[in-house]
Amino acid sequence: MSSKLQNIVIPYAPRPLQSDLHSEMAKKRWGVVVCHRRFGKTVWAINHILRDAILSRKVNPRYAYMAPTYRQAKNVAWDYLKQFAGAIPGVKFHETELRCDLPTGGRISLLGAENPDSLRGIYLDGCVMDEVAQMPENVFPEIIRPALSDRKGWAVFVGTPKGHNAFYELYEQASSNPDWLCVVNRASETGVLDDEELTAARQTMTEDQYQQEFECSWNANVPGAIYGKELEAAQMEGRITEVPYDPSKRVDTWWDLGIGDSTAIWFTQTVGRSVHVIDFYEARGEGLPHYCEVLNKRRYLYGTHNAPHDIEVRELGSGKSRKEVAWDLGLNFRVVPRLPLEDGLHAAQMLIPRLWFDRDKTTAGLEALRQYHRAYNERTRSFRASPVHDWTSHAADAFRTFAVGYREAGPVLRAPQVRAEMDYDPFAA
Q1: How would you classify the pairing of strands 107-112 and 99-101?
Q2: Which of these, 120, 242, 299, 388, is most buried using a 10 Å CB contact count?
Q3: Same domain, yes or no, for 131 and 194?
Q4: Which CB contacts under 8 angstroms, 24+ apart, belong to 191-194?
Q5: CA distance readout (Å), 61 to 50, 81, 423, 426
Q6: Same domain, yes or no, for 278 and 357?
Q7: What CA–CA distance (Å, rounded) separates 116 from 203?
Q8: Where are the strands (E) in 99-227, listed by range?
């Protein structure tokens, strides 16, 4: 590195918390940084990348800042990169590619996560993924992680919570792993925004919105959540707890079968007046033999296996329906009648107050139900009628099969009351 570069002063004066983050992240390869709005995470991210790119002794080091979309990367970070890297003599900016080339041979690129396949084949020495909660789940494990492998690059995930999703899972992993940096910066603790501003923000936001955006709450209800209130009530009432399998009762299964996609299964038992949701399973890209094996390994005493109406659709290749294929495998499905979507959602909302969930075995399914939501239409200022189709849909559709099929089957939740009859007269002489 030339003496000119050694004497460069970047026009960046980090706040104490930002400075601490730079120091702590320099000691770790992986990090999760949860920040409230207006903390300054993008400024921190760009300068963390820039410093490492300047000081790197590797040949042609490569770094990336990734946002959920390419447009967001340009709107949020490009001006910051030009502002702070512009102090370096000989630096070159490529506006059309959102790329900064340093005179040391280093390169910093701004990327969007909306088209991950276009990024395959790159290598990286460091990457900041900003607003991870809004990115496709496969971006890091399939694209960024392999790109960091051969040169043992680092990555830090920054953002604001948005319910329990892939970002939450990263946070959970980091919080229990000493090899990871895990930091949470809440507005009530950082002092970045004064009390007057926080009070004003609170007056114009719902409590859930405020807790999520400024207090970094993972548990604030998702806007437009379809089952949020019902599941929150179940949590408060202690109905999400340890619910053991009762070997004297049969287990019913409720399915959503995907074609080349995820298949989800809920496992339930009727025990007296209660309905116990004792298990959940979901997998992607597997055929019916795989799910038959899953059922066999659980060693439950099964009752009915219930599937939505589309299981009777015949496939063009074999001419058989999946119901017939399942029958050949020893799995006899009962077909649940088709109801309009809104009726099915209402049936599920009405059913949840009668359910007990096993906390450990249904964790993934419960998270999907919590995140299942309708999108908000800014133009009409209302939520759309149809739920968003995303990773939560399969578990939610299987749960809707449960709600519709259980109501239609009509199992007795209350023991029938029988009046005793006597064949003698106790008052007879």
Answers
A1: antiparallel
A2: 388
A3: yes
A4: 192/15, 192/17, 192/36, 192/38, 192/39, 192/40, 193/36, 193/38
A5: 11, 17, 95, 99
A6: yes
A7: 39
A8: 99-101, 107-112, 126-130, 154-159, 180-185
Question: pLDDT tens digit string along 84-117?
Answer: 999 999 999 999 999 999 999 999 999 999 988 8
Partner residues linked to 281 by β-bridges: 265
- Which neighbouring-strand residues pair with 62? 107
pTM above 0.90, yes or no: no
The sheet that has 99-101: what strands, in order across it?
Answer: 92-94, 99-101, 107-112, 62-67, 126-130, 154-159, 30-35, 180-185
Q: How far apart are CA 194 and CA 209, in angstroms?
A: 18
Q: Do 240 and 357 meet the contact criterion of CB atoms below 8 Å apart?
A: yes
Cα separation values, 244 from 269, 298, 361, 423, Å: 10, 13, 10, 44
How far is Cα 203 from Cα 348, in angstroms, rounded to an integer?
33
Indicate the residue among 190, 215, 240 that finishes a domain.
215
Residue 9 — pLDDT band, cuts 50, 70, 90? confident
Domain span holding position 240: 228-409
How many domains does one find in the chain? 2
Q: Please, are residues 386 and 307 in contact by the beta-carbon 8 Å criterion? A: no
3-state secondary structure of 342: helix
353 closest CA partner among 238, 207, 199, 208 = 238
Radius of gyration over alpha carbons of the chain, in Å? 27
Q: Is residue 165 part of a domain?
A: yes
Residues 62 and 56: their CA atoms lie apart, in Å, by 10
Q: Give the burial class of 59: count Cβ atoms within 10 A of its Cβ; 0-12 exposed, 13-18 middle, 19 or more buried.
A: exposed
Same domain, 123 and 159: yes
CATH assignment at residue 262? 3.30.420.240
What pLDDT band is residue 246 in, cutting at 50, 70 and 90?
Answer: very high
Indicate which CATH number applies to the domain containing 36.
3.40.50.300
Instruction: State how far the Cα of 46 lies from the Cα of 83, in Å rounded to an integer.
Output: 10
Query: Would you say 114 and 66 are in contact if contact means Cβ atoms under 8 Å apart?
Result: no
Mean pLDDT of the chain, nearest integer:
88
Percent of the chain with pLDDT over 70: 91
Residues 324, 200: one domain? no
Residues 247 and 125 placed together within one structural domain of the fold: no
What single-letter DSSP state applies at residue 299?
Answer: T
User: Tokens 């340890």 map to which residue?
Assistant: 242
